[in-house]
């Protein structure tokens, strides 16, 4: 099992936190990875950070191929086992508890009210703070099989089968569109009083960031499915916040369908950190969609401001190598179609904003100064942390540690005492040098989107209206 600090961690008001722990990820080489360099695979397949982040993470020695420390230019072969060891800092989630609204023992399913900020499945930096792990570990259910999903930021109703047979039945109902769904959202501006129907096709243009846009190719890729369609009705307009509470009825279930359709109509969810962010979309914030005409220009994305000097000295950190810019139809972004220059700009700004929000620049600086490979140096020698039959100590090399191993990183900066850098103002984790952020405000952990009602063959289920849907409700917009 992954190691963890058993000491209690302070719980700020409104938040639920767990102590960081080392965790190994393991995967086998996929057919499309064979013959490609590790940096290229990581940056295109799992990419939600800048190329520079992945380059230095790989150079620090935390990734192994078949038990041997890999380098960015390691070429993958058929049958290779890739393991990446991370010091997992799960982000805080809301302390609002998961509510079990109904448990049908005979028919083997639960109905739960999921708070916003909690993902359904383990993904990215989340593992223990996920709905499935909470239901298993905190509520004692042996096995859960979600039939539908909600975005991490979205709150509301979920039906959780407790057996594979029940999961197949309910999954089929959601897939075929026989489940009637009703959501509620708070959006920017005064929403029209008349019913609005949006049937614009949707396409995921950046799989790693989960970014979706209105795009005509969505009709082609989903030709075997019912076209994306959502019905919107105004509940009320609040003049004090210039926002509207809207009832949303998705007749299909595309990824981010409600968020993108509302953005396209010019009424994005008021606190959506992606689809309501002018730093990503510009002044129009995606109203009417973005240009979808493919551009012939394919150059590496422009670096964020904090990397401009590095780019001038050594070339673009977004390039795989100096003689090969990141080019091609998807420019490493996982897009199934050629992109317009405007779409490329949106994706690039989204990634750069994430890097800035997570303070990658500070992370890079402290790694340079620490000059140590990132690894679980506090594990007792030989301690096993099983992951598909392998151990962390085997992956790193017996007895190897982040403090006594030579670093693969180089810098012209004078060496500084690691503890001085790390402990300064408690900015960095002493285990992995990750920048430690101030605790977020609880109200920043979710968006104003709530799954309120589902009607299925097993019955109709609903939650109360969320507090932010109340008339005259005001939120902290700072």
TrEMBL record:
Per UniProt, the ranges with Polar residues bias are 381-414
Task: Please give the coiled-coil regions recorded for this protein.
Answer: none
Q: Does the keyword Isomerase apply?
A: yes
Q: Which PROSITE patterns match?
A: S4 (PS50889)
What Pfam families does the record tag this protein with?
PseudoU_synth_2
Q: Where is this region: Disordered?
A: 291-339, 374-414
**What SUPFAM superfamilies does this protein map onto?**
Pseudouridine synthase
Domain spans labelled Pseudouridine synthase RsuA/RluA-like: 109-263
Cited CDD domains: PseudoU_synth_ScRIB2 (cd02557)
Organism domain of life: Eukaryota
BP-aspect Gene Ontology terms = enzyme-directed rRNA pseudouridine synthesis
What molecular function terms (GO) are annotated for this protein? pseudouridine synthase activity; RNA binding
Q: Does the keyword RNA-binding apply?
A: yes
Catalytic activity reads: a uridine in RNA = a pseudouridine in RNA
What InterPro entries does the record tag this protein with?
A: PsdUridine_synth_cat_dom_sf, PsdUridine_synth_RluC/D, PsdUridine_synth_RsuA/RluA, RluA_PseudoU_synthase
EC number(s) on record? 5.4.99.-
The job of this chain, per UniProt, is described as:
Responsible for synthesis of pseudouridine from uracil.
Q: Which PANTHER family match?
A: MITOCHONDRIAL RNA PSEUDOURIDINE SYNTHASE, PSEUDOURIDYLATE SYNTHASE RPUSD2
Supply the name of the protein.
Answer: Pseudouridine synthase
Biological source species: Laccaria bicolor (strain S238N-H82 / ATCC MYA-4686)
